[in-house]
Amino acid sequence: MSAAQRIDGKAEAARVLDSLRDDVERLREQGCAPCLAVVLVGDDPASDVYVRNKVLRARETGIESVEHRLPANTSEDTLLTLIAALNADPAVHGILVQMPLPAGLDEHAVIDAIAPAKDVDGFHPANVGQLVLGDATLAPCTPNGCLHLLRQVAGDLSGKHAVVVGRSNIVGKPMAALLLQANCSVTVVHSRSTNAAALCRQADIVVAAVGRPRLLDAGWIKPGAIVIDVGINRIEIDGQPKLVGDVDFDSVAPVAGAITPVPGGVGPMTIAFLMKNTIAAAVRQQAMRDAIAA
């Protein structure tokens, strides 16, 4: 059996960002400069890397970026006051508060405080509700990036059976909602599921987002299935740190029809779709201002 097609998320993300540069240029010609505000609380090294990458991609795309770096002992009131100021600032179109937050800060309260129109992460309950209803909204970036990759590989997804492994609010649940919108038959498996591997073996599409290194091996995958690996797990192999996904790539690649690697698969798409959401937010906010002014 031939090896699976390797889905190059890095290359596809670059194409998405290239197309967004034209959108930014058109907005600037209309007097609107898209702007993303990124808030980082504390000094978590991984979060610092994520924020630097997001700010870099924003600037490369022509999106203005504003960074707010706060110490780990920042009070919740201080953080919420900053979010309120960003909500009220007409020059800011998107707000991203990097997660996880330091202990003592309520992530739910922080997400709820972001204006839904500026919630470019797509985590606000209002945006989640619109996603479930099938309405146009700012959808979470990682699932949206996964859906884009699936469509690049398979085209129309109608009628395909998709299994999502994991039910998190960040990936699993919104991924299931997006796949339903794409007319897939969707199964969600999780820690309480019975015969999870057998359920996955029925799938044309498997999206792994459970946070367990190399959990899915060849025994989980139907021959020819498309496998999207969202997992990013840091482990040691022979004493050396390594990033691996939730899928055992070497085991699954000879079975699957197509598969994303880790790294270089879903990760770059997440940032690309953050930029896409920021531009979409700017377009909507500008349209609303124009309507009010008319």
From TrEMBL:
Pfam families linked: THF_DHG_CYH (PF00763), THF_DHG_CYH_C (PF02882)
Residues holding NADP(+): 166-168, 232
Enzyme Commission code: 1.5.1.5, 3.5.4.9
SUPFAM superfamilies from the UniProt entry: Aminoacid dehydrogenase-like, N-terminal domain, NAD(P)-binding Rossmann-fold domains
GO BP term (any one): methionine biosynthetic process
The keyword Kinase belongs to this UniProt entry's keyword annotation: no
The keyword Chaperone appears for this protein: no
A cellular component annotation (GO) from this entry: cytosol
Keywords of this entry: Amino-acid biosynthesis, Histidine biosynthesis, Hydrolase, Methionine biosynthesis, Multifunctional enzyme, NADP, One-carbon metabolism, Oxidoreductase, Purine biosynthesis
Pathway: One-carbon metabolism; tetrahydrofolate interconversion
Domain Tetrahydrofolate dehydrogenase/cyclohydrolase catalytic per the UniProt entry, residue ranges: 7-121
Reaction equations catalysed: (6R)-5,10-methylene-5,6,7,8-tetrahydrofolate + NADP(+) = (6R)-5,10-methenyltetrahydrofolate + NADPH; (6R)-5,10-methenyltetrahydrofolate + H2O = (6R)-10-formyltetrahydrofolate + H(+)
Domain Tetrahydrofolate dehydrogenase/cyclohydrolase NAD(P)-binding span(s) in chain numbering: 140-285
GO MF terms, alphabetically ordered: methenyltetrahydrofolate cyclohydrolase activity; methylenetetrahydrofolate dehydrogenase (NADP+) activity
Quaternary data: Homodimer.
Function: Catalyzes the oxidation of 5,10-methylenetetrahydrofolate to 5,10-methenyltetrahydrofolate and then the hydrolysis of 5,10-methenyltetrahydrofolate to 10-formyltetrahydrofolate.
Family to which the UniProt record says this protein belongs: Belongs to the tetrahydrofolate dehydrogenase/cyclohydrolase family.
Protein name: Bifunctional protein FolD
Lineage: Bacteria, Pseudomonadati, Pseudomonadota, Betaproteobacteria, Burkholderiales
